[in-house]
Every structure is written in structure tokens, then in C-alpha cells.
Amino acid sequence: MDSDLQRYLDDLVTAARDVLGAELAGAYAAGSVGLDAYQVGRSDVDVALVSAGPLSRAAKRALVARLRHEALPCPARGLELVAYRRAVAASGTPEPGFEVELNTGATMPFRCTLDPADRPAADGRFWYGLDRSILHQSGLPLLGPPAGEVFADLAPADLRRLLVEALSWWLALPTPPDDRPAPGAEDAVLGACRSLVRHRDGVWLAKVAAGKRLIDGGDTSEVVRQAIAARHGGPPPTGGQAHDFQRRVRDEIAGA
Fold it and tell me: What pLDDT is stored for residue 250 in this prediction?
């Protein structure tokens, strides 16, 4: 692991323990760190905390105050942190179910949500169940028992529904109206690749690895190759290309 990232995660766990004390039951790196695909200068840092029970509003605010970028500078683009009660992590629920959500970083828009009911529906409520599914498979323990013992996976029907919701959310995002390369379209395409691999093969992979698996498996879609090349400085796909691929993936997962 990158040394700056390792120090940051160590300091984050220490700060969380200072705030929560014995209530802190676990801390896990998720996302690109858990999937062994962290890229310095590009990746976010995703962390899930697990508390023994529900957190008071004062504890939530104290946690945010200690972990936000201004108090604990994040070496990546930003930190995406979610805290869950142990019972929620073990439930396999598709609902958000979090105690507190914090997005913070030098180049990341700040977000602090202390109750799932306050999460705007337009921002998507599918993220959390999918993230906990990834944690179940690949969460990296920073504190506590193995992630697979703490986070339950989703039921197949719930997984399919959340994958379809996620793809529909991405499809609803605005894209340039012409055939010019659309910045960010590569992430939309590769995110769809990851969803398709999870649906077909039952495994979560990093986005680029998922795209390569589809290509190795005979997928001839040029947009996947272009999206992978864009991660290395090439032009991204157009919005139309990305949408066509996302619709195809959504239709397959939905069973259409």
C-alpha cells in the first residue's frame, strides 16, 4: 500500500477510536483499496466504520469534525466514509441503513449526512447495499474481524434490483449532445462492466479489471477498450457510446 495512504488510514482509525471508544467495533477499507486497484492521484479513499450500536447525534458530529479533510488531510482526491451499526452490516439489507456519511477532500464536494432519511433520492440510495456487498467480498480490515464475517452479502433479487437502479441513475446523468468525447464516460462504461461481471460471474472486480475480463471473454464492444485506454490518457468515449453500452448491460441484468 502507498505509504501516505497507510499513514492516513492508521490516523483515521486512531481518530475514530478517540471519538467512539469501545463503541468502535471495526474499520474497513473498501472501494479501490479493498479491490487492490488504488491509484495515487486518481482514486478516492473509501472507508466503512462499524459501531456496536446506534450513534448519538453528538457522536456523529464529533466523528465528522475529527475526520473531515480540514482536521485530517486526505492524501487522495477525497475520503468517502460511511459508518454502520453492526446489526445493519450483518443484515444484508438493500436499504442505506447508515449512521453517518461523510465525503470530504481537497477536490471533493463536502457531504455530511447524519440520517438516511436526509439523503436526497436524486443522489441514489443504491450505493450502500452495493458497497456492503463489495465489503463482504473484499473489505480490507483496518480494525476488527475479517470483513466477510461482519458484512453480509445481498440476496440475489436485491442485488439485481440495485444494479439496475445504479445503471439507470448513471444513464440519467447529462452528457454532451454531440459526438465529442465526454469526460467521465469512461468511468460510466467501466462501472457498467463491473456490474455485468458481478451479475454474470458472482465476483466484484475493480473497474478496469472488469472491462478486461469482458474483453478476454469475447466481448467485442469497442467502447470498453476505449474506456480502458482513457484511464491511461486516451480520449474517453462519447456520451452516446457510453449510454448505448450501459443500456445493453442494464437490459441483460434486468432480464429484458
Answer: 97
Q: Give strand pairing partners of 136.
A: none
- Between CA 19 and CA 64 the distance in angstroms is 10
List C-alpha distances in Å: 96 to 28, 38, 70, 71, 110: 17, 25, 26, 27, 19
- SS3 string, the chain, reads CCHHHHHHHHHHHHHHHHHHHHHEEEEEECHHHHCCCCCCCCCCEEEEEEECCCCCHHHHHHHHHHHCCCCCCCCCCCEEEEEEEHHHHCCCCCCCCEEEEEEEECCEEEEEECCHHHCCHHHCCCHHHHHHHHHHHHCEEEECCCHHHHCCCCCHHHHHHHHHHHHHHHHCCCCCCCCCECCCHHHHHHHHHHHHHHHHHCCCCCHHHHHHHHHHCCCCCHHHHHHHHHCCCCCCCEHHHHHHHHHHHHHHHHCC
Residue found by looking up cell 441514489 in the block: 124
pLDDT digits (tens, 9 = 90+) for 146-167: 999 999 999 999 999 999 999 9
pLDDT in tens, 42-99: 789 999 999 999 999 999 999 999 999 999 999 999 999 999 999 999 999 999 999 9
Distance CA 46, CA 35 (A): 11
Q: Which three cell numbers stand for residue 8?
A: 492516513
Supply φ then ψ for residue 196, to 5 degrees: -70, -40
